[in-house]
Design brief:
- With 137 residues, the protein is mainly alpha-helical.
- Helices cover 79% and strands 0% of the residues.
- The termini are far apart.
Length: 137
């Protein structure tokens, strides 16, 4: 009984760690990267968005494939008792981190840092102010 509880807890911790990479990354692409890129593209404030959108698409497809493989392996080889731990942990992760994967100041700053080479130098300050104002952060 104690061993089952311990393995249940370990399954939940492992799922939280896995989700912080495999679920959060595509969520940030979908909820931050793509909307900001489209907005900046619409206002002609960013260059070469085609390559950037391909990167976001690749990231999303990559993690969907990896998550599908992991889900198949878990359903196939992990005892069903631990499926509840994994599902509960996944739900807790989504509830806890949904706001963190959205348009937060940290995510906007990381977007600007990572993609500053695509934004002309004279627009960096105005783009930053525009994003904060547009998304009312």
């Amino acid at each position: 009984m104690f061993l089952d509880f311990l393995l249940f807890a370990v399954s939940m911790v492992f799922t939280q760690i896995y989700c912080s990479f495999a679920i959060a990354t595509p969520l940030i692409c979908i909820r931050v990267g793509i909307p900001i890129t489209k907005l900046l593209q619409k206002n002609n404030l960013i260059h070469d968005t085609n390559g950037l959108m391909k990167q976001y698409t690749f990231c999303i497809v990559f993690w969907v494939i990896i998550n599908s493989i992991v889900a198949f392996l878990v359903l196939r080889y992990v005892p069903s008792f631990y499926h509840y731990a994994i599902l509960l942990s996944l739900i807790l992760f989504l509830v806890r981190s949904f706001r963190e994967t959205g348009l937060t100041p940290t995510n906007i700053n990381e977007y600007l840092e990572n993609n500053s080479c695509l934004i002309p130098d004279e627009y960096i300050e105005s783009v930053s102010e525009y994003l904060y104002h547009h998304f009312s952060i």
